Amino acid sequence: MNLTFKLPLLAGLLCFGAASAADEAAPGVAKLEPAAFLQVKAQIEEELQGNERYKEIEVKDRERVLDALDRMADMLQGASSVQDLSPNDRAQLLTDQALVNTVLTQAAEDSQLICSREQKVGTRFKTTVCETVAQRRERNEAARRALDNRGRSTMTPLPGG
């Protein structure tokens, strides 16, 4: 089993897997040896520190990613290839890698900035409003909750009436 690192997609994300002809020919995929893992780990840790890409990542998810990276580094320490690891360690390595990829991919998507031109009420002027995907989702959910609460409050009978 060889380690691979997908360079053009979300820099810093890991892609481990069995080497195949498709992996060999895939553009932008470089083989990552266990010795080079520490560089990738450092890059991910740096990107998690105040980087715009992952600014929407929750504290617990950040800790899960860092813990997984530490476990992976411990397993790879002293190994010349992933094949040197026991089957259980390889399975744990792939599980940790999947966790890192999943959490960081979602955080990067949630941190994407979306801008739109919106007309201000009472004027013809438009303003640019920018927010992250996560902020937009939270705003929509808050509006939905407010409407739900408003609908419930109009349906409850008034006391004494």
**How much of the residues is beta strand, in percent?**
15-25%
The chain-level structural class is alpha+beta
| Spatial shape | elongated
Helix content range of the residues, please? 40-55%
The end-to-end span amounts to: 74 Å
Low-confidence stretches: 1-13, 15-31
Order of helices and strands: EEHEHHHEEH
Total DSSP helices: 5
- C-alpha Rg (nearest Å): 23 Å
Strand order of the largest sheet: 2-1-3
Number of separate domains:
2
Count of β-strands = 5
- Mean pLDDT across every amino acid position: 75
The main β sheet shows up as: 3 strands, antiparallel
Keyphrases for this structure?
two-stranded antiparallel ribbon; 2 domains; 161 residues; alpha+beta
Short structural description:
Helices cover about 50% and strands about 15% of the residues. The chain has about 160 residues and is α+β, with helices and mostly antiparallel strands.
Describe the protein in words:
By secondary structure, this protein is an alpha+beta fold. The protein folds into two domains: 2-110, no CATH class; 113-155. 51% of the residues lie in helices and 16% in strands. It is built from five helices and five strands. The chain has helices spanning 21-25, 37-48, 59-76, 87-110, 133-155, and strands at 2-6, 15-17, 29-31, 113-119, 126-132. The strands form two sheets. A three-stranded antiparallel β-sheet has the order 2-1-3. β1 and β2 form a beta hairpin. α2 (37-48) runs antiparallel to α3 and α3 (59-76) runs antiparallel to α4. It is elongated, with a radius of gyration of 23 Å.
